[in-house]
Amino acid sequence: MLRESGRVFLEAAPKGMDPDVIGHTLAADPGVFEVHGLHVWEVTSGFTALSAHVLVSGDKPCLGECHAVRRP
Fold it and tell me: Which of 15, 42, 61, 72 is the most buried (most CB within 10 A)?
């Protein structure tokens, strides 16, 4: 239990999730130009959070269309 709670306190990536793989997967999307500042952590047991700065391709006008690149 101490080990699992330590992951939460240290804001470590949840067990079985590799931030590098997640970042490369996001960056592989054709509408994405760059991903940086990626952080994946476990807020509490079973509740994972992700934040990242994602730059979309300059080929699309960003007022409105950049949000279409995001997926729920």
Answer: 42
